[in-house]
Amino acid sequence: MRAYDFTPLHRATVGFDRVADLMDRVLSSEVQTSTYPPYNIERTDEDAYRISVAVAGFSEADLTVEQRENALIVSAKKADESAAKTYLHRGIATRAFEKRFHLADHVRVTAANNADGMLHIDLVREVPEALKPRQIQIGKTAKAQVLEA
Fold first, then answer.
1. The model's pTM
2. Do 22 and 64 share a domain, yes or no?
């Protein structure tokens, strides 16, 4: 796998160390990406997103959705029922899983619901007023006003 050097990014920017760290984590070969369970990430609005996870066979009691700082953790654990049943073919996987999603700053979970074998998690990015762009009034300084008087 390729190794990327983010040194130029550090020289030309301030405060983007977390982005470089995230890129290092994503691009490192140590990260194991699991394809179970399948999921979709979609943009539903300018600042709204939805993660849909296929959780066939799991009830709401089996599922856990947790947001910790900038991470969303979706996990499931089902009680072992295989002892009571004899399967001739078992194609529906109900094995335990933990799926982690890294969230950007100011993204929070607004809702989660389980319907028709799909767990839908709605997220929204809420940028605080202090971080939104604002227009600065250009005016005379106090010193200039005193000189005119």
1. 0.68
2. no
CA distances from residue 38 to 82, 83, 96, 142 in whole angstroms, order as listed: 23, 27, 13, 62
Range of the domain at 106: 36-129
- 22-50 core/surface letters (b: 16 or more CB in 10 A; e: else): eeeeeeeeeeeeeeebebeeeeeeeeebb
CATH of the domain at 94: 2.60.40.790
Residue whose structure tokens are 């600042």:
47
Helix or strand (DSSP H, E) at 45: strand 39-45
pLDDT digits (tens, 9 = 90+) for 80-136: 765 677 888 888 878 899 999 988 888 999 999 999 999 999 999 988 887 778 888
Residues 53 and 123 in one domain: yes
